[in-house]
Amino acid sequence: MSASLFIASGLDWRLLLQQGVALLMPEVLLTAFACFVLVLESTVKAEQRRWSAYASLGGIAASAVSLVQMYVQFKDTRVTGFYEMYVIDPFALAFKGIFLLTAGMAVVLSIQFLDVEHEQRGEYYALILFATTGMMFMASGADLLSIFISFELSAVAVYVLVAYFKADRKSNEASMKYFLLGVFASGLFLYGISLIYGLTGETNLSRIAAALATTQDIQSFGFLAFFGMALIACGLFFKVAAAPFHMWCPDAYEGAPSAVTAFMSVGAKAAAFAIFVRIFAAGLGALRGAPTEGGMGWAVLVAVVAALTMTWGNLAALTQSNAKRLMAYSSISHAGFLLLGLVAGNATGYQGMIVYLLVYVFMNLGAWGVLIALRRGKIAGDQVDSFNGLMRTHPVMAVMMTVFMLSLAGIPPTAGFIGKYLLFAGLIETGERWWTILAVVAVLNTVISLYYYARFIKAMFTAEATEREPLAASRGMRAALIVATIMVGIIGIYPAPFLKYARVAASGLSSAVSSPLVTIK
């Protein structure tokens, strides 16, 4: 699509509106279907409430089709709109695909789960669609204000989802804790934004980067620049559950409905990493710093937090008997691994982050899917012991869970190995001695994680079965788990096409200034 078509001057308002809406079409479709689901809920009978889930899947599919069309149009062009507050580039498109994939799998896993819990209602699926819409806006955020609004849109929907079981005290407690700490983190994030704006006079990431880059001595910004950067980082560390801002994660994961936990463990985390990269790589690159240069910028801060997060998450997971809490600490450790891509700050590191998040959708949601299937009747199924003898009673489920656990541990030839390899390689490619040491720390943490993932495998294959009641797994859930298992294997054995697209998305971060740019007011 030619750039001249998007020149704002001389266009009438109708064409301008059409072009502006075209950039937002995936989000507009999701929002429209979310509203439709809310209306549908009030018109169907109780036994027909599954139609809300099917309508939600239809909305996700329609949004995905629109996203593919957008990729065909804009794959070689970086387009900004709405006074440069919104950007479409390969990086945004890649993350939006991850969000839609996460939402689709979460809806499929939720249908049977909500039937078992007798909580099948349309507002649940509408909240998932609204949260996904916020995440998609976050991926395209090119301005600190638009990022913050998107940030809150997604967060508010997830707060409500965590407390979806109104009569469950654990669910309410988890939501309240998550909400209070989330508001505090949002305050830190907003305060950091205000400091950066006060110093540069800008909220647009590109113009912030230009203001910082044209300064002869970055230290002239003084303490406030680094304090503002640190506050923004703290707000995002909370969202990705990085230590020491992880305290909400185990309780929220345990108390929330399992299907909600599966969704937030991937979607919310991926969205936070999308804006992490946007803000720090595209906007605050001048504050990066490097150990060999004696710099104490955000790269050093993120590296320390990454090492602490990996280590604490893995060590805490070793002692857990509750499967949901164990998976919560596992999620914390994976946040540490993903931060390595930001520390590396090169194409390989960003490529590894994108691939890892794509893989994480399949292996983590797959593992949660098996855990959800264990919840049936009066059986909670949320303990590691709940997996005892699964190979004897449900061998297909046991094999799939084994694949997911091996992939989470990063064992070849699973897809998890590919993601971790790229993240480690990105650190080593920098040539920084301290980053190489950080890569070694990450490898040691991978070895530690194998122990607690192996606990699931041991329970399934060696222990005697404690429950023989059939699993609560519908055909849709089984199909989703089979697809997740196949994708974990395909990406691990033949990763070339996924690596190619991830590299295109990652390279756009470093070439954003020089790439073809067209603007819609």
Short structural description:
With 521 residues, this protein is an all-alpha fold. Helix content is 72%, strand content 2%. The chain has one domain.
Q: What's the helix-strand series?
A: HHHEEHHHHHHHHHHHHHHHHHE
Beginning-to-end CA distance, first to last residue: 17 Å
In terms of structural class, how would the helical and strand content be classed?
mainly alpha
Biggest sheet: strand arrangement: 2-1-3
Overall helicity: over 70%
Summed up, the domain count is 1
Instruction: Characterize the biggest β-sheet.
Output: 3 strands, mixed
Shape: globular
Q: Roughly what is the average pLDDT, rounded to an integer?
A: 87
Q: DSSP strand (E) fraction?
A: under 5%
Total beta-strand segments: 3
C-alpha-based Rg, rounded: 22 Å
Tell me the layout of helices and strands.
Layout: H1 13-23, H2 25-41, H3 50-74, E1 78-81, E2 86-88, H4 90-117, H5 122-139, H6 144-162, H7 169-200, H8 205-213, H9 222-239, H10 249-255, H11 258-283, H12 298-317, H13 323-344, H14 347-373, H15 390-393, H16 395-409, H17 415-429, H18 433-462, H19 475-493, H20 496-510, E3 517-520
Parallel strand pairs: 1-3
Antiparallel strand pairs: 1-2
Describe this structure as you would to a colleague.
The chain has 521 residues and is mainly α. The chain has one domain. It is 72% helix and 2% strand. It has helices at residues 13-23, 25-41, 50-74, 90-117, 122-139, 144-162, 169-200, 205-213, 222-239, 249-255, 258-283, 298-317, 323-344, 347-373, 390-393, 395-409, 415-429, 433-462, 475-493, 496-510, and strands spanning 78-81, 86-88, 517-520. It has a 3-stranded mixed sheet. Strand 1 (78-81) and strand 2 (86-88) form a beta hairpin.
